[in-house]
Write a structure and sequence with these properties.
The complex is a heterodimer of chains A (358) and B (262). Chain A has 8 helices and 20 strands. By secondary structure, chain A is of the alpha+beta class. The radius of gyration of chain A is 25 Å and the shape is elongated. Chain B has one domain: MetI-like (MetI-like fold, Orthogonal Bundle), CATH 1.10.3720. Chain B is globular, with a radius of gyration of 22 Å. Classes of the chains: A alpha+beta (358), B mainly alpha (262). Chains A and B meet through strand 6 and helix 2 of A and helix 8 and helix 9 of B.
């Protein structure tokens, strides 16, 4: 470790009765980093966030912020601020008082609070709305107020619990880039909790994928997409076609894998001869060709369905052994598409075949 | 209009006349010019005037107001504390027992509440008077306050308090600056309820009051035993008006609160 991390979780476990919400999680987040916790609902990502904020206490393990153990630190004393999924704006206070709430608690003089609130209103582009009540705001405006309130105390770490969940799609995309801009400008570490892989991949420098209370993989979006650590990760981040087989021979860095269906495919991942492997191939890296009458292809099947989605075209193919394979290519290229029911052959480059480390 | 709706209107009218006819009669007869309660002698406000000269009645009305004001205040403070403890201190030992016990005085016969309080005051050798009635009414009123405030706190979004603490407020300050302001309408409604209960009560007050602390219902009751006078009708009408006013205020409060929440 070069620099001390801002947040370090050491073997943190949290149980609710018989349910283990967070299971032996160790994680480090650096100062100024944008980290996303990604996982399906109920995977424990919100519990992990609440542990960091101090609303829950871990049953085992330690949480360190700036090297300091947070075990007996109540939420109000932690250098962490949270943006709640419901926004949790105080309905009986004006926008300005909501944003200034944390500053009042810190004992900041009144004139300074007013100046800082104005600065924050500018930052989230809500100038002139300071006197409004939360119920007079639109969803997007409430979201900005909640964000400004969480940023007011200049926290080292900002926790964002599904911050864009309640916004419509267009607003969500705009807000994603705005959050990234704010994070870069402020230099604070952001920790985002989301179940939306797009959101995590667009915004975060590093993503931690959670499943059943554990972080199963942490890395950049590219790491996770191209080198998923497990079948779950491969399926949760994007789509993946999974093939199982046994390595037949290894030659010049290429492994030939005999699939259960009898087909022979190649991968450039390092393997040992005789090893059972699970291969994941992304749909956009599958090649689909019309099969000519004489052809006997490795991966042959029937085109079940195809859909034109503008930016890409997707297709489902049923292989001869019954497995369904997804194929995607850019919509621009897909000028001529095979008819439904056509016999097709599939292939992929050895570099496209990722062997799951299981 | 359909036949069904006629039946409904009729049922409504019957129900409400059952409730309000006796009260209406009392109000009408309070404006009766005749001394005889059952004979209409023309419209007059003479009994209201003579009321002002009846020092005993005025004194006990004043006593009732003071008792109600103080006991409702006490009941609101204690009842709100109980509601906060039951909703915000997590699952402490015996919470279920406490939360059911808070309802017990609601269903307890007033005679028993009054008698037990009397026994307590006698045992502790406390002279009965203004303060004993206040304490007695506060015990009754605090359950109602606790129930009303509890209902509000249960529906209050916990993340509001968490947000306050996350922003640096200690639990105590989060309570003062977020929880209590948001529960204020129900706390006020609880106060109104406790106030009315105290004004209305005859039984508990009879057990716990002493000489010089006769409340209005006690005075009315003792006078009625000597015969109903139009004066009693007049003071009762005023009492009804006062209670109705508090109720309407409470209702308006509830409506604004609901609109705020929506």
């Amino acid at each position: 470790m070069s620099a001390a991390p801002l947040i370090a979780l050491e073997n943190v476990t949290k149980r609710y009765g018989a349910v283990t919400a967070v299971d032996d999680v160790s994680l480090e987040i650096g100062a100024g980093e944008f980290f996303a916790l990604l996982g399906p609902s109920g995977c424990g990502k919100t519990s992990l966030m609440r542990l960091i904020a101090g609303f829950e206490t871990p049953d085992a393990g330690r949480i360190l912020i700036d090297g300091q153990d947070m075990a007996h630190m109540p939420p109000h004393a932690r250098p962490v601020n949270m943006m709640f999924q419901s926004y949790a704006l105080f309905p009986h206070m004006s926008v300005a008082r909501n944003i200034g709430f944390g500053l009042v608690q810190a004992g900041m003089p009144r004139a300074m609070i007013e100046a800082r609130v104005q600065e924050l209103l500018r930052l989230v582009q809500l100038e002139g709305l300071g006197a409004r009540r939360p119920d007079q705001l639109s969803g997007g405006q409430k979201q900005r107020v909640a964000l400004a309130r969480a940023l007011a105390r200049k926290p080292r770490l900002v926790l964002l619990d599904e911050p864009l969940g309640a916004l419509d799609r267009k607003l969500r995309e705009e807000t994603q880039f705005e959050l990234m801009r704010l994070q870069r400008e402020l230099g604070a570490a952001f920790m985002l909790v989301t179940h939306d892989q797009d959101e995590a991949m667009v915004m975060a420098q590093r993503i931690g994928v959670m499943q059943a209370g554990r972080i199963v993989q942490a890395g950049t979006a590219r790491d996770i997409y191209e080198r998923p650590a497990s079948r779950f990760v491969a399926g949760f981040i994007g789509e993946a076609n999974i093939f199982e087989g046994v390595v037949e021979r290894v030659e010049a860095g290429l492994c030939s894998v005999r699939l259960k269906s009898g087909a022979l495919v190649e991968t450039s991942c390092p393997c040992a001869s005789g090893q059972s492997v699970t291969i994941a191939v992304r749909p956009e890296r599958m090649l689909l060709e019309l099969m000519h009458d004489d052809g006997a292809a490795n991966l042959a099947g029937v085109l079940l369905d195809s859909a034109y989605r503008g930016d890409r075209q997707t297709a489902q193919v049923r292989l001869d052994d019954g497995a369904i394979v997804r194929v995607a290519r850019s919509g621009f290229e897909a000028a001529s598409s095979p008819e439904r029911g056509a016999k097709v052959s599939l292939s992929f480059a050895p570099q496209a075949a990722w062997v799951l480390p299981e | 209009m359909s036949k069904g709706s006629h039946t409904r209107t009729l049922a409504l009218l019957f129900g409400f006349s059952f409730l309000y006819a006796p009260i209406a009669l009392l109000v009408i007869y309070s404006f009766n010019a005749s001394r005889l309660v059952t004979v209409w002698g023309g419209f007059s406000t003479r009994w209201y005037v003579s009321l002002l000269e009846n020092d005993q009645l005025i004194a006990s009305a004043w006593m009732s107001l003071r008792v109600a004001f103080m006991s409702a205040l006490l009941a609101t403070v204690v009842g709100t504390c109980a509601a906060i403890a039951l909703t915000r201190f997590g699952r402490f030992r015996g919470r279920l027992v406490f939360s059911s016990m808070i309802y017990a005085p609601l269903v307890m016969p007033e005679v028993i509440t009054g008698l037990s309080l009397l026994l307590l005051f006698v045992a502790l050798d406390i002279p009965r008077g203004f303060w004993t009635v206040v304490v007695a009414h506060a015990t009754l009123g605090m359950c109602f306050v606790a129930v009303v405030v509890h209902a509000r706190l249960v529906t209050l979004d916990r993340s509001l308090e968490e947000a306050a603490m996350d922003l640096g407020a200690t639990p105590g300050r989060a309570l003062m600056s977020v929880t209590l302001p948001l529960a204020a309408p129900s706390i006020l409604a609880g106060y109104g309820l406790a106030f009315i209960l105290s004004i209305d009560d005859l039984v508990i007050a009879s057990f716990t009051s002493g000489p010089g602390s006769t409340t209005l219902p006690m005075r009315i009751y003792s006078q009625v035993r000597l015969g109903v006078t139009p004066e009693i009708n007049a003071i009762s009408t005023l009492l009804i008006a006062g209670v109705a006013l508090v109720l309407v205020l409470g209702l308006a409060l509830g409506l604004t609160e609901r609109r705020q929440r929506a």
